[in-house]
User: Which sequence fits this backbone?
């Protein structure tokens, strides 16, 4: 399966947000809806910092402005 | 392998941008750098419309403003 794990990066630390993310959709600017393969949803405020699909990683960061 | 294929959605049509995308990184607002598993890079102007990792799909759309 090709889901990924989402993290919020704060001061260089990766805090887990959600595992096994399937869908990532923008809700509004800097707000994203994540849906896991199990169907649970989470809203994330922040911007995408980097995604590494081969490493199964989605990194978010807080907007700095 | 868990790379995905990137498409630009224009009027409901999905035009392929790049296959086997590994890394997605913001360059600036509404500009993204894609790097494939083969190491080639592409810059995409637009916003992320939806990603379905299990389906290996990344959909971009042109900003409507």
Assistant:
């Amino acid at each position: 399966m090709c889901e990924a794990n989402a993290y919020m990066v704060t001061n260089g630390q990766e805090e887990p947000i959600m595992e096994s993310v399937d869908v990532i959709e923008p809700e509004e600017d800097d707000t994203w809806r994540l849906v896991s393969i199990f169907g649970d949803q989470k809203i994330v405020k922040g911007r995408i910092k980097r995604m590494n699909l081969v490493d199964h990683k989605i990194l978010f960061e807080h907007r700095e402005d």
User: Anything to note?
Assistant: Strands of chain A lie at 4-10, 13-28, 31-36, 41-45, 47-52, 57-61. Chain A is about 0% helix and 70% strand. Chain A touches chain B at residues 1-4, 21-26, 37, 47-54, 56 (CB under 8 Å). The longest strand of chain A covers residues 13-28.
